[in-house]
Design a protein that fits this description.
Shape: globular
Strand order of the largest sheet: 2-3-1-4
Helix content: 25-40%
CATH architecture: 2-Layer Sandwich
Structural class: alpha+beta
Largest sheet: 4 strands, antiparallel
Strand content: 25-35%
Number of helices: 2
Order of helices and strands: EHEEHE
Amino acid sequence: MEKQEYILPVTYVKCAFCTAKNHCAACGGELTGDLRAKTGVEDAAVDLLAHTVRIKTGLTQTDIEDLLEGMGLMAD
């Protein structure tokens, strides 16, 4: 399956990394690592300050949204 790169606007609805709920670069780094480890994801970058996710994958748009939702990110 051909890989495609998407840039999606997102809102962080669940913070599993910071009890103060600071949506910062550190949380984005943790989420980036988790997303890159997911099956079907070739590359990814989460930027919570810019409210974006860049993902290179062969997954469908629906599968990407489900994957992000499972990580506490809602595609806008």
